[in-house]
Amino acid sequence: MSPVQVPMARVALSTASVYPDNCATAFDVAERLGYDGVEVMVQADPISQEAGALQALSDLHGIPVVSIHAPTLLLTTRVFGAEPWPKVDRSIELAKDLGIDTVVLHPPFRWQNSYAREFVDGIALREHDHGVRLAVENMFPWRARGRELLAYLPHWDPVVQPYDNVTLDLSHAATAGSDALAMAETLGDRLAHVHLADGLGSARDEHLVPGRGDQPCAELLETLAAQRYSGSVVVEVGTRRLSPDEREVDLAEALAFARLHLAAAASEPNDLSRTV
Asked: Could you tell me what percent of the chain has a pLDDT over 70?
C-alpha cells in the first residue's frame, strides 16, 4: 500500500463563508472546526479593513490570516474608496502589515476603462515593488436573455492573460462552463491560490459545498496533493440562508472534503508541481 501523503496545502476559511456575519465569527468558526487559516474578504465590516484588529483575532484564536481578498466586487464598491487602484494598494498594505504574501482580486469591470487598460502592467509592477502575489481570480460572462455580456476586461478568464499568479475558483468555473482541470494544467506554476466551492453550471454563481455540484473538486485536490502544491485552498461557500448550526455543518463538511482529497497517495510530482 502506498504511504499516505501529509497534505502540504493549508485549508483556510474565507470570511465570505459566514456572510453576513463578520470577521470575528469567521475566526471563531475556523478555530472550532479546525481550519488552518482564514482568508479575509475586505468588506464594510471595519475589522476586515484594519490590520491591528485582524492580528488581534488571529492571536486570540491561534488562526493565521493566509490571504486578503481585495474589495473589487460590486458588493464592495465603496469599501476602501471608489477608485480601483487605491483599493488594490490598500489591500497590499493590509497584507504586508499582517506579514502575508497573497492578495486575491477580480479583473476590472468593463466600465472601468482606464483601470482595465492599465491592469496587466499595474499588477506586474506592484508585485515587483511589494513582493506580494496578486492572484487574479477567474470570473465568468454575465448572461441576460440568452446572450452573454462581456462584463470584465481584459477578460473574465485569467488563464489567457499574462498574470504571474492566478486564483482558480471552481464555482466561477461552473458558471463560466470552464474546464477547471484543464485550467489548472494550463496554469502550471501560475496557479497560486484555490477557492474551493462547487456549482451546477447555473448562471447564478452558486458557491455550493464541494461535492454537491458537478465540478471536479475531488480530482483537482488530489492532483494538487500529488504535485505537492503548498499554497492555500480556501473554502468559499454560500451559507447566508442557513442557521448558525446549519452553517457549521456545511463548513465542517467542506473542510472534511478538502482534507480527504488532499491526503492523496504519495506520488511523483509532475509538470504542474509548485512550491509556493
From this structure: 91
Q: How far is CA 27 from CA 31, 55, 229, 240, in A?
A: 6, 11, 24, 17
Q: Which residue has the higher pLDDT, 271 or 14?
A: 14
Measured distance CA(119)–CA(99) in Å, rounded: 25
DSSP state of 111: T
DSSP sequence for 195-227: EE-B--S-SS---BPTTSSSS-HHHHHHHHHHT
pTM above 0.90, yes or no: yes
Q: Is the domain 10-261 a CATH 3.20.20.150 member? A: yes
| Axis crossing angle, helix 217-226 with helix 244-262, rounded to the nearest 10 | 40
Count CB neighbours of 73 within 10 A.
16
Taking the C-alpha atoms of residue 252 and residue 255, their distance in angstroms, rounded to an integer, is 5
